[in-house]
Structure formats: C-alpha cells, structure tokens
Amino acid sequence: MSKESPGITVSKKDDFSEWYTQVVLKAELADYAPVKGLIVLRPDGYAIWESIRETLDKKFKATGHKNAFLPVLIPESLLAKESDHFAGFTPEVFWVTHSGENEIGDKLALRPTSETLAYSMYSKWIQSWRDLPLKINFWNTALRAEIKATKPFLRTSEFLWQEGHTVHATKEEAEKEVLDILEIYKNTVEQELAIPVITGKKSDKEKFVGAVYTTTMESIMPDGKALQMGTSHFLGQNFSKPFEVKYLDKNNAETFAWQTSWGVSWRLIGAMIMVHGDDKGLVLPPRVAPIQVVIVPIYYNDKDADRVNTEADKVEKILKEKGLRVHVDRRDQLTPGFKYNEWEMRGVPLRIEIGPKDIDKNKVMYATRHIKQKLDLPMDKISSEIDGILQKIQDEMFEAAKKLLSEKTIKTSEYSEFRAAIESGNFVDAGWCGKKECEEKIKEDTMADIRVIPFDAQNSGKCVYCKGTSVTNAIFGRAY
Questions:
Q1: 184 vs 58: CA distance, rounded Å
Q2: CA torsion, points 433, 436, 442, 444, in degrees to nearest 10?
Q3: How far is CA 31 from CA 18, 37, 384, in A?
Q4: Nearest by Cα to 414 from 475, 361, 358, 460
Q5: Count of CB atoms within 10 A of residue 98's CB?
Q6: How far apart are CA 21 and CA 320, in angstroms?
C-alpha cells in the first residue's frame, strides 16, 4: 500500500482488494495490530460501530430483549456437550492451556461463539414456564483463528458483534423470534447503511452447525462476491436437550425449551465501505457518518478571516442545535483544496464552503460526497433544508446500491449461462432440486455456493445442474 500519498492511489475497478485496504487505513477507520489476524479500531471506525449498535440496541430493547455479559473463556468439557456444533468450530478455536508456567488442566477456549456457555447458565436460571421467554443479547467479541489472509472488518481473528440467545416455551414462538430478528437486521442495514439485502434461508449444507435451520440476509459487493450480512438461527431443541434447558409447564410437566440464536458483526462496516466507496475513498451514508457535515471556511487574508470564521460559527451552531454531527475545519496551514480532498476521502456526506463572496450574497455553497454535486444554499434556508438534503443523500445511496444488486443478479435455467454469470461476478437466481449432491457439484465446478433461498423465491421448475424437478430457486454466488 502506498504510504507516500495521503489519497487513494488505486482504482476500485482495477484492484478492488488494494483499494479496500487503502480506504480502511487512509480514512483512519482501522489499522493492523501487532498480532496476525487482529486489527485496531480507530475512533471513526468505532463511531460507525456505535451508531449501528445504538440503533440495534434500541430495537432489541423495544422488543423485550435485555443485555448481559459473558466471559471470554469456555471450558473444553462444556464445548463438547453439543458435539456437532463444537466440531464445526474446532479448527478455528484458540486454546488457553497455561496460567503462567502452570498447565491449567481442562483446556479453555477463547469464545468462538457463546451457545454452550450461555445455555449452561440458562439451564440454571430457567425452572418454570413463568421464566419464559428469556430474551438476552450480548454485545461482545468472538475469537476465531483466521486461516486466510486478514481483511479488516471482513476476515479477522477477533471481531466485534452482538449475539442474541433466546429461550421459548413453544416452537411457534421461537420461530417467530427468528423472523422478527431477521426483519430488524434487514431494516437496520437498509435504512442506516443504505445496503439492500436478500433475506431467506440457508441450505442444510450451509446452515449454522447445530441449528434446525438458518435464516440469512445476503448482499453482493461491487467485485461480484457475496457477503453474508447477518444470520438468525432456529435451534429447535438441539441445544436444550444436551444442556438441559427445560421448564415445568402449566401442568407441572417437565418440558424441553425451544431456542434461537442470532448475530451481526462489524462485517457490516466492511460491506458499507465496499458498496458505497469510490476512487476518492470512503462514502458514508449520513445516518452512520461520524461527521455528517464538515464546514470549510475559505479566506486568504486576516481581514476576511474573522468575518468568515464568525459566519462558520453561526452555521455550526444552527446545525448542532438540530442534533447533527458537525465539524469546522479551521486548519490555517492547509489549502481549501487539500481539505476538500481529505474530507472526501474520509467520506463525509456533506461539505459546506463559506467564503467572503458567499457572505456578500448571503449564501453558502454545499457539496454532496456521493455524487459530487455543488449547489448554493441561502443562509436563511440552512436550518429548514439541511435535513432534507441529508435524507436525499441517504435515499440516493440506497437506490444506487439497489441498482447494483439488480444488475448483478442474473436469472437463468441454462448451466452454461450459470457458469458464465458466476465467472463474471454475479448472483445467479436458478432452480435447485434440493439435493446436496447437486449443490456440491456446482461448488466444485464454479466455487459458488447457495447463498440464500429467498423467502419469496419463484420456482423455475428445473434444477439448473441436473435438470431434475426443482423444489425452489436459490441465489448462488461466490463468497469472501
């Protein structure tokens, strides 16, 4: 990566991977840590995560969920209780074997996910039907030994996420929870991050290990790869039985509970960078931008400085009173052009420029980051129109991302077209017979797997691979 230039030195189209890395580092969202596989989240990156977290947290609490905390260490004996689930994580587990120079006996895993730990506690806390539903969410980190190359926000050995774990008296209530959470995720990603998603189920081959089924939301990135944006799992009684999560029902009969688990991670930030960014750098949706509006005072002598700065202060006050996140760039040693480039690279949605001539005309100039449009705004209209301008930016960013998803989703029933579409970097909507053999052959042949079986999938009648009768259409794609 080029350290010499403060700007992005490669094109998104020509070298997507290098472009992404430069944007993350140069826009100061994150940096590589001294330990392989780990990253350090910088203030702007953390501010975006906080915004996502605050939105989800409100929605979780509004639907009766409570936050709690779990420790990071899990004994091996506990992990092995649900053997299928644990086997799925074994290659990724970090183990603690010593305390100082002494061996600790039962190995301790650094939490890859918290099902086993949470449910060993739930079995103690739940006695009666009166204790249900139990709806707990944990904001924490997970640690998984990353075998592939580190990619900030997308592939790291430790990542920020939330994981919800709920317990219900009935199957119907648990299944409703799974779908309710997926809808919360979908609305948050589409409305806050301006990224459209396709929701549906995973195939049995791709579902969460230990789940009865997994629901997912998937999106496609500009380089043609699929990104799983979040999942919500119906666990049935697959964990309640080995962990003895049971309760006495209203007839005093002992009954195993029904469970769900669900989560999203800071991978959402990676998706946002990839979907909206351009050759200048980051492009942030206004709702999650750490700075929504940057004000750049423009003057070239001391006489104008006081006048322009006074006006900048007035505009800042108006915007802050509206609850907006505003910054005034008062760095005298830098030219306006340098400042514009820097704030564009950092993705600030809206820039307001104020110079002596603007003050004379009782106006400001504003520039939108996403389409680089410059327009005048009368000074007395700032308060009444700025919210609408920011909302328009948010809406236009979502529409552009929807267009990308639509253009990169190809529907076909011919396998030769299927292969060509995958090779060109697309989602492919195609019929599937439901057999694992066909799914595996397609993966072997094209490196594409079933990303999602949409809830509203149309059945085209024939399996794209074997030409047998299809049970549904599915969206195929190559993943990161």
A1: 11
A2: -170
A3: 14, 11, 39
A4: 460
A5: 9
A6: 33
Residue type, 466: C
Instruction: Note whether 211 and 174 are within 8 A (CB).
Output: no
Strands 254-256 and 39-41: unpaired
CA atoms 53, 217, 145, 165: torsion sign: positive
Share of the chain above pLDDT 90, in %: 90
CA–CA separation, 83 and 392 (whole Å): 51
Written as six digits, the tokens of 394 are 């948010």
Q: Yes or no: say if 225 and 477 are a contact pair by the CB < 8 Å rule.
A: yes
Q: What is the residue-wise DSSP string for 264-307?
A: EETHHHHHHHHHH-BTTB----TTT-S-SEEEEE--SSHHHHHH
Buried b (16+ CB within 10 A) or exposed e, 410-441: bebbebeebbebbeebbbbbbbbbbeeebbee
Residue pair 227/480 in contact (Cβ under 8 Å)? The answer is yes
Instruction: Give the global pTM.
Output: 0.95
* Digit-coded pLDDT (tens) for 255-290: 999 999 999 999 999 999 999 999 999 999 999 999
Please give the single-letter amino acid code of residue 120: S
Three-state SS at 415:
helix
Give the three-state DSSP class for 256.
strand
Q: Are strands 363-368 and 374-378 parallel, antiparallel or unpaired?
A: antiparallel
